[in-house]
Amino acid sequence: MNTDTGRDTADDPGAWARPAPGETPTAPPVTVRLALPTDAPAIAAVHQASRQATMPYLPPQRRTHDEVTRWIREIVLPQCHTFVATRGPELLGYAAVQGDLLDQLYLRPDVRRRGIGTLLLDAARRHRPGGLYLHVFQLNTDARAFYAHHGFRVVGADDGSANMENLPDLTLRWTPVPRPRFPRGNP
Length: 187
Fold this sequence. Notes:
- By secondary structure, the protein is an alpha+beta fold.
- The protein has 4 helices and 7 strands; from the N terminus they run E-H-H-E-E-E-H-E-H-E-E.
- Mean pLDDT is about 85; it is low at about 1-20.
- This is GNAT family N-acetyltransferase.
């Protein structure tokens, strides 16, 4: 018997794989992969839910789910290198990189602060190891803190006339720290 769990393990080799009574099964791991066209409806749902939950200062959404899905399928996916975070069949979030612009990074509201945004950001950084920039609303203090934590620095500010929401925003930039170069050969 395992004294930590009170469960028999010596006689039951599957005891480690099954949850104890009252425990929930272990969730599948979160994975990051390239987005597929069939992901467009789920990406659109994440986009809409995230904006509504995390940016209450935005004007009410005027686009339907079908319109946002069409935008994802016809504009975002063809023009951006788009990553999705999934757990089993669930799509949890996405990040879209166009050139060296991190154009989108959104998570389902119920999975925030669990490292999923970091996984997506890491995928974007691997895709653009020379650096990334992004735009964030000045009012979006949670996103600003997330990006600052991950090494992004403010490089510009705008009054909002350049975005369709007409809200002041910031341009942030991440530039990788150069690694020390050691001379070839033996020390």
